[in-house]
Specification:
By secondary structure, the protein is an alpha/beta fold. It has twelve helices and eight strands. The protein has helices at residues 23-33, 47-55, 57-64, 74-82, 93-107, 120-131, 149-162, 175-183, 198-202, 211-214, 219-226, 228-252; strands spanning 11-13, 16-18, 40-45, 68-71, 110-115, 136-141, 166-170, 191-194. A six-stranded parallel sheet has the order 4-3-8-7-5-6, with helices on both faces. It has a two-stranded antiparallel ribbon with strand order 1-2. Helix 6 (120-131) links the parallel strand 5 and strand 6 (136-141). The longest helix has 25 residues, at 228-252. The relative contact order is 0.15.
């Protein structure tokens, strides 16, 4: 793959362009971008992201101007079908990160992980080093730092000094996307990839839902059951809101 033009063209869901890429295509493109060229912004969308985009113009702009936006949720995959477009693949980072680690190791490319609580990103990197010979972990840092001023400058300096090819950013939505956009011109990595809670899931600090739930669009229900207060607005309010917006869009389409 030589450029984003070799990826499937994006489809539009509620005004957000989403690339219908497979995990293999995404990983191959990341490794290709890691060989040369400017920084590429790689973001993802789930139902929560789509609702955030409706409420925050800067977040929507971050998605619209990214080099790739991939589908990270069954809700968006099914919602696309409702408005007449196809997103055949749902790619949540925990499902493709091992393929990414293997491919970057084979290509001699390095990875910096930024986000979560103290030690979580380092534990994540350690799990990949143990599983993939040659995996190049060149640094990790927690996500609890001031996002402007000297503390932010120090984080950027550390990432740049590491010589990392790829930067995984797990600060949570919409902070991770805003941080990537705000600092893209200062970062010397080839890709900056939003990964949410990937680090704690892959390191085993927090368990994921059973596979029968993750494979059938029910992972949100497991998360809601374990953290009902934290996720009430995101799922109990957010999911019906997303469906209502899709239905309104579908009804309006014949009149456009």
């Amino acid at each position: 793959m030589g450029s984003a033009r070799s990826l499937p063209p994006p489809v539009e869901v509620l005004g957000i362009p989403i690339h219908p890429v497979s995990a293999e295509q995404l990983v191959e493109q990341l490794v290709d971008w890691g060989q040369a060229g400017p920084l590429r912004r790689v973001l993802n969308v789930n139902v929560h992201a789509m609702n955030l985009a409706a409420d925050h113009a800067d977040f929507a702009d971050a998605l619209r101007t990214a080099d790739v936006v991939f589908c990270d949720g069954f809700g968006v995959k099914w919602g696309a079908r409702l408005v007449g477009v196809s997103l055949p693949h749902r790619l949540t980072p925990p499902d493709w990160i091992d393929a990414f680690a293997h491919a970057t190791a084979a290509a001699g490319q390095s990875v910096y992980a930024l986000g979560d609580e103290v030690g979580v990103a380092r534990a994540f990197q350690a799990t990949l080093r143990a599983a993939h010979g040659g995996y190049l972990d060149v640094g990790a840092g927690d996500g609890f730092f001031a996002k402007t001023g000297p503390a932010n400058d120090a984080v950027i300096d550390a990432i740049n000094a590491s010589g990392a090819t790829h930067l995984l950013v797990g600060l949570g939505m919409p902070l991770q996307e805003r941080w990537i956009v705000a600092n893209a011109s200062r970062l010397r990595v080839r890709t900056a990839i939003s990964v949410g809670a990937l680090f704690r899931w892959h390191a085993g600090i927090e368990r994921r839902a059973p596979s029968w739930m993750t494979e059938h669009g029910l992972e949100w229900l497991d998360r809601l059951g374990r953290h009902p207060v934290r996720h009430f607005r995101r799922y109990v309010v957010g999911n019906p809101r997303f469906v209502a917006r899709l239905l309104a869009d579908r009804i309006a389409r014949p009149r456009r």
